[in-house]
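JOB MANIFEST
job_type = single_chain_structure
chain_count = 1
residues = 521
[input]
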Amino acid sequence: MATSSASKLSVLEKSGYAMGDAAANLVWRGALAYLAVFYTDTLGITAAAAAALLLLVRVSDGITDIIMGMIADRTQTKYGKFRPWILWSAPVLGLFMVMAFTAPDISPEMKLVWAYFTYIGLTLAYTVNNVPYSALMGVMTSSHEERSVLSGYRFAGAFLGGALVMAGTPYLVEYFGQGDEAKGYQQTMYVFAVLLVALCVITFATTKERIVPTENTGSFKKEFKDLLVNLPFIIVPLLSISLFFFSLTQGSDATYKLNPWYMGVFCALVLVGTGYLIRKLIRRPEGETTPSQRDLVNLLTNKPWLMILGLGFLTMLFNGIKYVVIAYYFKHYLHEPTMTGMYFLALLITSIFAAFVCGYFTRLVGKKTLFIASLIISGVLTGCISFLSSDNVTGLFVLGCAAEFFAAFMPVLTFSMLGDAADYSEWKHGRRATGLFYSAGSFIQKTGGGFAGALVLLVLGGYGYVGTDPSTIAQATDGMVMLMSWIPAIFAFAAVFLLIFYPLNTKRMEEIEAELNVQRG
């Protein structure tokens, strides 16, 4: 089905929208690529403590993603539901970006407190900025094909922002720090924070919200109270999962250790109990549920959305593990730390090109087929990195960039498919909670990134790695090689199995889109 001219977006608007994710990825790619090594090698936090921090904050922050999605859906301003949040949150996000990469001269205990405070603030500010930004894509056009192209622009912008941070950070840290890494990191982030605010202003000024939900969501105050009542359905299972993985990340020197076996049993019981209560909620007649409960029911009974959530989590682990370990791999295995920025730049240039062409490949073969092919090819190429010797930098660049070309399709397709899931919900239930559906994108990034960072640090910690003790490095290089190759590849292959059962192919989406266009009148 051809995209109607009324549904098409101008290049200016698509490019302006892309600048919002360029801004977000000044934070996201920077934090994902450098924050772990900053914590262990500059701030002086142990690998186990850093793993627990990344995991607990990221997983628990998934709660705020869902809350923010509901809040954004119920926001009413003359500028729309989602665009104002991008503008309001930008200065706060920039501030916490600087603070997260600041290393104060305080005791080791207080450094850990500082890391928790700044990282929590950074992830909360990112939520307020990026959940509405992601949802904005779902209301800019009614065409699922045009959303695929827009998603390509978005991630081209994301990879561009990431390229600036990943490639530029090592050189800027050296330039500003002159041997003082702590000073270099802080001043580098000042530069990126100013750029972040400017890019968010561009997105706000150049985009427009066109799709308006037909239902009246009611009083914001009333529905927010209703939301708080239903939060236990979200908080309790996430808290139990967080505690279980926290028990796995504790170091041998912990004052009090949670037993992983006991915590695993507790987590399983909580998940079973929560599942039983949610099943009862789903079976309740619609007239006996509140608006936020109906949103949750629509979400939890939306099979495509649940599968996209799983796909996004697995692909985020696949991509996230590789990005977190790169700095360690170049510094300690290849002994070429200055090449880290060039490798990031090569990956991100490849990603930008892939993001631009992804939408057009989607039109040729469909999202599902393209996704499956990308997972298989990228997974195999990533696994082959394990066969490279420690002096084969050229081979790493070739294999890494080839794998990245296909890996870059994954987030583009995931966020485009979230819009399809929102269309499916509107078609099936007559309700479109766009912000809530797209909050899954931010949730995927944070929880997947948290697990990826924690897994990297757990593996390195298992090999005895201590960032401030050079004598422990050689024994951990085998772990670094596996983290660059077969460990992430396993998650790509698992995602293929899940994607086989995904129900929304191109033909089905064309039928749903046609019916929705008639319903919207």
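[summary]
The chain has a mean pLDDT of 81.
The domain at 7-520 is CATH 1.20.1250.20 (Growth Hormone; Chain: A;).
exit_status = 0
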